[in-house]
User: What shape does this take?
Amino acid sequence: MDQLTQTARALVAPGKGILAADESVGTMSKRLEAAGVPASPQTRRAYRDLLVTTPGLDESISGVILCDETLRQSVAGGTPFPRACAARGIVPGIKVDTGAKPLAGNPEESVTEGLDGLRERLEEYAEMGAGFAKWRGVITIGDGQPTRSCLVANAHALARYAALCQEAGIVPIVEPEVLMDGDHGIERCAAVSADALHTVFAQLIEQGVALESMVLKPNMIVAGKGCCEQPSAAQVAAATVGVLRRTVPAAVPGVAFLSGGQPPAVATVHLQAMHALGPQPWVLTFSFGRALVDPALAAWRGEPGNVELAQDTLAHRARCNAAAAAGRYSDELEPAAA
Ligand code: 13P
Assistant: This one.
């Protein structure tokens, strides 16, 4: 098996998932400030240091996605972040897109940018130790949205990015996110997500991407946040697995879900409910951002004295999600957090 496929499989190793700690400088700064922590390169570094040095993290986390700023910083003691992760058996990854920008012709929708100069940036990231990368396309559900042009533009960019990653020896995480914003029902999310995934895989194949050497990071199939009829976990699981089975080739080793704004324990319950449906062609796991780190950030509040509590909080959510990824989660695991 080649190195890329080995890394892709390691990222979705049974009972492990990915920690998405790659918020851009702007997004991270807002989240720190909302938690009462002044935003600066130093506080962003201290927060990511806390996350990646959490004791026991390697038992549930296979890879950590970092942003450019963090990849160039060091943990306390001076070891660069990518080396500190790798030393614990956690694959360091890097977010390489440069953000979602208004789509020409349909400015209420977005297309993710970052292809210019990407080959050179990937070369540097590979030298710095990145084993995988991430690119997120954003799809909004609304009146007349998504348009075909939005789906195709984002899928094309994801495929061009994925091909460049594989050329550089880096595993691409391909993330087409259908947002939870809106009052649409679960059926609409299912239809749009199926269309988005179908378009993405058509483009991946057009661009010659090796499906064996990538990881898909989709949204779960849920109702819009503003929808008055919220589906049960069993309905979310059945809809999500159904859409994936109709659109994702079995050659893809793993599907690692984003959490997308679901409350942390709800995202865990949804992942567990998918495993209750039995084996699937691909590994089903998590690549959560907010659903893993929000409770830890709230516990930390920038206080050195709270680091241990914050790390325990992260380790707990990581363990719960790893249990769900192995089909062994139940709410009996939750009181340990208290
Ligand atoms: P959330 O789990 O917070 O949606 O973040 C995952 C991610 O990496 C978004 O790109």
Observations:
- The CA atoms of residues 159 and 204 lie 5 Å apart.
- The chain has one domain: 3-323.
- Residues 3-323 form a domain with the TIM Barrel fold (CATH 3.20.20.70).
- The chain has a mean pLDDT of 97.
